[in-house]
Structures are given as C-alpha cells and as structure tokens.
Design a protein that fits this description.
One of its GO terms (molecular function) is polysaccharide binding. With about 325 residues, the protein is an alpha+beta fold. The protein folds into two domains: about 80 residues, no CATH class; about 150 residues, no CATH class. A six-stranded antiparallel β-sheet has the order 3-4-5-6-12-7, covered by helices on one side. It has a four-stranded antiparallel β-sheet with strand order 9-10-8-11. A hairpin with a 6-residue loop joins strand 3 and strand 4.
C-alpha cells in the first residue's frame, strides 16, 4: 500500500500540470474570430458588429452580404434598396435585429432631382410596424387658384417650377388637397409613425425631422444561426467561398452554426491559484515522509489534490528530524 516518494510526487505533478488547471490555448494567433469579435464604429454609430461591415476596418467575412456600410462620410450610408438609392444609417438595435435609415436624397429637400420610390430589398429587410408612409405628389396641375396647406413647389434643372403636394394619413383631407390624377409622379417615403403624426404642415421643420429620423427596418441575416453561434461562445461571420453563414470559434476553428465541443473554461482566479499552491505544499509534506507507511497512497494523493483544501491535514512533523531523509531525496 505504501507509495514510493517518487510516485507520490509524480502523481502530484501530473495532476497539477498547468494545462489541467489553466487550459492555456496552444497557439495564439489573429484569426477571423479575433478580428470579427472587435466591434467597429461607422461615423457616429459605435459598437457595430455582425451583420454590418465596412470592408476596411471590418472585413466582409465578418458581416453578411448586403450589410456593407460606407463610413467615408460623416453620415454612415447603407444600401437597403433594390436599386442604388443611398440611405443614411441612423440607429441600430442589435438585440431586436432592427435599425433605422433615412433616405439620403430627401435629407435636405422635398424635390430630389431623380424621383424614386422607397424600394426595400425584402429578402434582407422588412418594415417595422411603427412605420407609416408619407406620400409625395409631383408635377401637379393646381386644382384651384388658392394654394393648399400641403402644397410645395419644386424647381428643376431647367428652372421650371412645378407644384407638389404632400399627404400623410393624419392630414385632414378637408383642409388639404389629395391630388390623384393631376400629378405626374407619386412617391412614398416611410417614416416613424410617431414623427409622421407629429408633422405640422405649416411648420417645415417637423416634416424635415420626420424625414431625418427615417424609418425602422428589421433585418434577416441568419439571425437564428448567429444567436446559436454567439450562445456557444463564437462570433458570427460569412464564408465568402461557400456563400454561407459561418461561426468563428475561440478554438480558432469555424463551424456551420455553433462552436462544437467548446466549453468556455475560465482562467483561474487568484484564490484558486493560492489554493493550488497550498495543496501542493500539503501533499509534498505528505509525500516526503521518510516513513513509507506515512506516505499517502496514489489514490489518496489524487483525492487530496482534487478534494477540498480544508479536508487536508498536516502530516506528522517528525520528518525533518529523521536522519536518513536527505540522502533518500538525493537518490531520486
Ligand atoms: C497565424 O496567422 C498567419 C496569418 O494570418 C498564418 O500564416 C499562420 O499560419 C497562423 N499560425 C497559426 C499557428 O495558426
Ligand atoms: C407604403 O406604401 C407602399 C405602396 O403602397 C407599400 O408597398 C408599403 O408597404 C407602404 N409602407 C409602409 C411602411 O406602410
Ligand atoms: C422647361 O423649360 C424649358 C426651357 O427652359 C422648356 O423648353 C420646357 O418646355 C419647360 N418644361 C415644362 C414642363 O414646362
Ligand atoms: C436658373 O436660374 C438661376 C438664377 O435664377 C441662373 O443662375 C441659372 O443659370 C438658371 N439655369 C438655367 C438652366 O436656366
Ligand atoms: C411609387 O409607388 C406607388 C405605389 O406603388 C406607385 O403608384 C407610383 O407610381 C410609384 N412611383 C414611381 C415614380 O415609380
Ligand atoms: C403649426 O405650426 C404653426 C407655425 O409654426 C403654429 O402656429 C401652429 O400652432 C402649429 N400647429 C400645431 C397644431 O401645433
Ligand atoms: C469556407 O469554406 C471553404 C469550403 O468549405 C473552406 O475550405 C474554408 O476553410 C472556409 N473558410 C473558413 C474561414 O472557415
């Protein structure tokens, strides 16, 4: 039953190897995981992450196609339409997969040079319930000589002036004109319902505020897979060669949806390190007992190291006075 001094210490060393306690990663490297984990800033919007990327500070493999931002101007831009219209990114709410955009061409005019509807790419985005349309009519024939409250005028590149009308759900049709057939173009621009309902037609600032605030969109960029990936400790991304979602993991591997077999092992706390040191001293004292019958068995060593510190008792103290102990140590 008695253990040799050597095997006693050997078992202790095996159990207490750093990898068993510290779980050090073998090769630290800058991988997709490290790169994609870093949030980035675009214009005034901070802490952006998947599915957004800009192709510069954050590579395309950290985002999802269709979510590239243009961060070169003070107002961050994104294309959410089926054509090339520009939209300003106004705010992002990652927890609800929602963000708000405003049309860049309506930022400081009601009369953009090219008239186009808001044509959202519904494969990636959808309107939020809180959106409401502002409808704008252009190049209209005046229906009466008296100008209406919801009337505005536009001057084109040839200096020709034409009349337009603006209509929203809340404008009283008895006080405002709804010109249907007399206008050559009709455009709708969504805005947040709260802002639309606050539009005072005689106060242009309230209309511009509604256009600047923009409207809400919800995104669909493999949201479910990304949630599973992050839940397993990974970071979401996109494999450009397979055109599929990818989950980058702290083990420097990538997976289809989640980090396989990876469980987040925490680094030891100071208290844990001190406890390990105390155990080592205690077990060492038991191991170097000169009387072999006082030495613990291998299974007892394992038990002592894996058990609670409080359950360890001090060995008999006569060991240091024993004459033969130093020569025995040297024999190791
Ligand atoms: C670390 O990254 C570099 C470039 O990204 C790569 O060439 C190298 O093989 C990587 N090393 C390891 C150990 O992964
Ligand atoms: C605005 O109007 C267009 C055309 O009628 C419609 O397709 C779109 O869903 C409307 N947008 C909102 C937010 O109601
Ligand atoms: C606009 O102005 C040009 C000349 O500047 C004229 O030829 C044209 O007919 C005008 N268009 C309309 C719709 O009034
Ligand atoms: C339009 O009017 C402005 C000033 O009223 C003038 O400077 C400009 O040359 C005009 N443009 C055209 C195309 O007539
Ligand atoms: C914009 O959409 C509305 C509703 O679908 C349509 O009636 C209108 O013709 C469109 N306008 C343009 C310029 O395409
Ligand atoms: C709308 O704006 C005008 C001018 O700014 C102001 O006199 C009026 O009281 C406002 N109406 C409402 C309902 O706030
Ligand atoms: C993307 O997919 C290809 C083909 O399956 C694979 O070889 C490559 O390693 C993947 N990229 C990443 C970053 O995992």
């Amino acid at each position: 039953m008695a253990t040799s001094l050597f095997s006693c210490l050997y078992v202790m060393l095996i159990i207490l190897t750093p990898s068993n306690y510290f779980h050090l990663s073998s090769a630290a490297n800058t991988t997709e995981y490290e790169i994609c984990r870093k949030p980035f800033q675009c214009g005034f919007i901070k802490d952006l992450s998947y599915p957004f990327y800009d192709g510069q500070n954050r590579p395309a493999y950290c985002g999802y196609p269709g979510f590239q931002l243009d961060c070169s101007k003070p107002k961050p831009q994104i294309s959410v339409g089926t054509s090339s219209e520009k939209y300003y990114l106004r705010a992002v709410s990652p927890s609800t997969y929602a963000f708000s955009v405003s049309r860049a061409d309506y930022w400081d005019t009601l009369c953009p040079s090219i008239l186009s509807n808001t044509s959202i790419d519904f494969s990636l985005f959808n309107y939020e319930d809180v959106d409401l349309n502002i409808t704008l009519y252009y190049r209209c024939s005046p229906t009466s000589s008296k100008s209406a409250m919801n009337q505005f005028s536009c001057t084109d590149m040839d200096n020709n002036t034409s009349i337009g009308y603006l209509m929203t759900k809340n404008l009283d049709p008895r006080l405002n004109i709804i010109p249907q057939k007399t206008c050559k173009a009709k455009i709708f621009v969504p805005a947040f319902q709260s802002a639309v309902l606050g539009i005072n037609i005689t106060d242009g600032a309230s209309l511009m505020a509604a256009l600047h605030n923009g409207f809400g969109l919800r995104w669909a960029a493999e949201n479910e897979l990304c949630s599973i990936c992050r839940g397993s400790g990974g970071e979401c991304g996109y494999n450009i060669s397979t055109s599929k979602f990818i989950c980058y993991c702290p083990d420097y591997q990538s997976y289809g949806s989640k980090c396989n077999g990876y469980n987040q092992k925490k680094m030891p706390t100071i208290a844990k390190i001190i406890e390990i040191q105390r155990k080592m001293i205690m077990v060492s004292l038991w191991c170097i007992q000169t009387n072999p019958f006082n030495r613990p068995t291998i299974s007892r060593v394992v038990e002592m190291l894996e058990g609670k510190l409080e359950s360890l008792s001090c060995p008999p103290i006569q060991l240091l006075q024993y004459p033969g102990w130093s020569s025995q140590t040297l024999q190791l």
